[in-house]
Amino acid sequence: MSARRPLFGWNVLGLMPAHVIMLLTLIVPVGIIILVSFSTRGPYGGFDYIFTIAPYRQILFNEGWTGELEFNPQYLIVVGRTLLLALATTAICLACSFPVAYFISLQSRERKVALIYLVTLPFWVSMIVRVYSWIIILGNNGVVAKALLALGLPDIGSLLFTDTAMLIGLVYSYIPLMILPIFASIEKLDPALVEASHDLYGSRFTTLRRVILPLCAPGMLAGAILVFVPCLGAVLEPTLLGGGKAMMMGNLIQLQFGAARNWPLGAAISIVLMASVLIFLTVRGLSAVRREGREAAR
Amino acid sequence: MSKRFSVRAYPGFGLFSLLFFIYLYLPIAVVVFYSFNANRIVSNWGGFSLAWYGAALSNGALLDAVRISLIVAAIATAISTTVALMAALVIVRGRNVRFRRVSETVVNLPLLLPEIVVAVAVLILFSELGIANGLVKLVIAHTTFCIPFAFLPIRARLQGMDADLEEAARDLYASGWVAFRRVTLPLIMPGVFSGGMLAFVISMDDFITSTLLNSGGATTLPVYIFSLIRQGVSPQLNAISTLIMIASVGLATLAFIIQRRE
Questions:
Q1: Do A86 and A207 have their domain in common?
Q2: Looking at this predicted complex, what is its ipTM?
Q3: pLDDT band of B66, cuts 50, 70, 90
Q4: Are strands A40-41 and A61-63 parallel, antiparallel or unpaired?
Q5: What mean pLDDT do residues B142-169 have?
Q6: B135 FRET partner, CA 20 to 30 A, in A42, A88, B13, B95?
Q7: Which of the four CATH numbers 3.40.50.620, 1.10.3720.10, 3.40.50.2000, 3.30.450.40 does domain B60-260 have?
Q8: What total number of domains does chain A contain?
């Protein structure tokens, strides 16, 4: 190919606005978050730049009047709950998305378009409205409780403000993000491979396990990231469906920057949250590199 | 054809998909259904009524919140789409671009960080800079996290476009700007449009950042709805939710049709 003439001779100028905005509103502020997480809490909220590791110590210990430390797992439980709920959400989304994505891919062209539209549609509908709808369904005297009563089952009262409610809300919020990449990878799958597996006496289950699923792994991985990362930072679901008692990292941070007015602690938890995301992305990056290496070795 | 035994079909997937779509749409249907409930207590049906829609449309605080949301979303969309378009042109078309990969990561940075971290970052930034105007804070923060949403469709469109067309325009002595105005921009317009649309919806929908920055008298629609939810489930809230859903479904359908028209 001959050397193309660029439209504009200003590479640097074109990229500058994006870089400047990200630098000023994100990269520098994240640096400030790290600083704040090592700062002393101000007397009236806010913070003073006096170095201390107290915010991180506070995640693990209660500090008494005389400075004695008492181990308190309350924040560790929040961190653990967040990781578990995010993992469970990702797993459920994975398990539920595959059959749906596979079913859609078998449809005619027009029906495919219509079904994909139906999958993406809730995503355009306001997040807060979608989470709110579950309050009506799960709440006291809600749709679920009424349905169970009508079936003659015992009154379970309200499902609201439980881990289950949060899980339902999280799956509901993020499952379209899992279906789309899996659908894309199934679409790329060559049907001849599935038929070849059957011709070689592979049962449906064997074909699924040995041919279809491995070939859809990249889509599943992409979906897992798209679901897992926002789940870790979820705020609305734990606030509205978890009821403020069963917190996740997201609303714990929000609380520290809002009503609790403990910015350094909030910053420290933000760092823990960012670290969790980074670890997850790094592990994924490494596994992708390893897979490419394996394929190259073949 | 459909009667033919298919080795690709799996039994039960159809039923499972049906259940899935019910799960996806049941909550939305419940909200719409109860918005017509005449009874003040949401889960007790008291007959059909449109009263709550009237109450919602004459709710001054709600209309103020809608106004703030629209202003913030319009400005943030305009800026972020322009910035994203410039960045996409350089990243996809530019020659000898140094740090292409790094630039792409930087542009997509808001997608890699949990939103609450982005929100906390801008909150601390504004408190350090002493910016107190709520509207200014919201516009800056929304612009930041809208950029990748505007960027991705534009980049996809630009990658799918034949660069020879641009080259032909340049060979016919069009200046860079004219080639862009008359050839490139019309061809990538659907991408620019869906990018802008996505940015607009993301901005309208944002809760986390807006609630953390909610001081200085700029309450956006989601923040206002949150305060209503805190007061308890109510039919008026259902009516408001239904109106929002109608608006977003309309936008989504428009975006979908424009993308499909190729």
A1: yes
A2: 0.86
A3: very high
A4: unpaired
A5: 89
A6: A42
A7: 1.10.3720.10
A8: 2
What is the distance between the alpha carbons of residues B111 and B106, in angstroms, rounded to a whole number?
10
Tokens of A107: 């449809």
CA distances from A140 to A145, B37, B221 (A): 7, 18, 26
- Tokens 């792994």, residue? A217
Residue A185 and residue A113 in one domain? yes
Residue-number span of the structural domain to which A143 is assigned: 76-250
Subunit contact B201:A102, Cβ cutoff 8 A: no
pLDDT at A10 over 70: no
Q: Name the amino acid, one letter, at A119.
A: V
Whole-angstrom distance, CA of residue B3 vs CA of residue B86: 52
Q: How far apart are CA B52 and CA B64, in angstroms?
A: 18
Q: What is the mean pLDDT of residues B132-136?
A: 84
Q: How far is A68 from chain B, CA to nearest CA, in Å? A: 31
User: How far, in Å, are A103, A135, A137, A229, A263 from residue A241 at the CA level?
Assistant: 31, 7, 11, 19, 25
Chain A hits for B91, CB-CB cut-off 8 Å, are 15
**Cβ within 8 Å, pair A132-B211:** no
B22–chain A Cβ distance below 8 A for any pair: no
- Per-residue CA distances from B106 to B10, B79, B82, B201, B203 (Å): 43, 17, 16, 22, 20
Domain ranges of chain B: 13-52, 60-260
Residue of B90, B121, B207 lying closest to A29 (CB–CB): B121
User: pLDDT digits over A77-135, tens only?
Assistant: 999 999 999 999 999 999 999 999 999 998 998 999 899 999 988 888 888 999 999 98
- For residues A106 and A228, membership in a common domain is answered with yes
Alpha-carbon gap, residue A93 to B44, rounded angstroms: 33
Specify burial of residue B9 (Cβ count, 10 A radius: 0-12, 13-18, 19+). middle
Taking the CB of residue B171, how many other CB atoms lie within 10 A of it? 11
A148 and A119 within one domain? yes
